[in-house]
Amino acid sequence: AAGVIQSPRHLIKEKRETATLKCYPIPRHDTVYWYQQGPGQDPQFLISFYEKMQSDKGSIPDRFSAQQFSDYHSELNMSSLELGDSALYFCASSLGTAILSGNTIYFGEGSWLTVV
Amino acid sequence: QKEVEQNSGPLSVPEGAIASLNCTYSDRGSQSFFWYRQYSGKSPELIMSIYSNGDKEDGRFTAQLNKASQYVSLLIRDSQPSDSATYLCAVCTESSASKIIFGSGTRLSIRP
Description:
The structure holds two protein chains of two kinds. Chain A has strands spanning 5-7, 10-13, 19-24, 31-37, 44-50, 53-57, 64-68, 74-78, 87-94, 106-107, 111-115. By secondary structure, chain A is mainly beta. In chain A, 0% of the residues lie in helices and 49% in strands. By secondary structure, chain B is mainly β. Chain B is 0% helix and 56% strand. In chain B, the strands form two sheets. In chain B, strands 2, 4, 5, 9, 10 and 11 form a six-stranded mixed sheet that branches. A five-stranded antiparallel sheet of chain B has the order 1-3-8-7-6, with no helix packed on it. The radius of gyration of chain B is 13 Å and the shape is globular. The termini of chain B are far apart. At the A-B interface, β4, β5 and β10 of A face β4, β5, β9 and β10 of B.
């Protein structure tokens, strides 16, 4: 079965550069979530989209922005990168929002961002 | 206080024994509860979801939910070395229906 696809899997950027991560949800899934997981930490919610509209916002820095496109894929844009942005970035998708019983959230394999 | 609390462990359990993982949450409006397993450097993998009070069993896994006590647990029977991982408790609240909030995870180690 098709899963959540993230690209690139690994990315190395220098401080103050810009990075873009892409997420392709499971076919027919209309909700996308972005999480950031630092070394040894739990995944922190950044932002989510439902039907191409932002549905919730978490601890996403102002330097970051994201959007969901008409084909439901999503991109996370990160500017003025800092060393502390080095983390594993997960995208997840679901059919409908998480609150509804039976809606399972599936995670992609993640994109490793290293800022040097 | 974190919204979702877990004992960070490590929890060491002999092979074949029952591993018991616990989680408490602060928002009484929480509706959906999930247990994810995460191997180092890998993405979280859904193990169990539970929405109503009581027990839910799936193979060697049993999730238990007690909304009055704001407590959810995961039991792993006949523990295998491959069960060694970090187990993340996650909650979806009524006020934040479009996200799930993770606990910090419990590291489980199954010793042969």
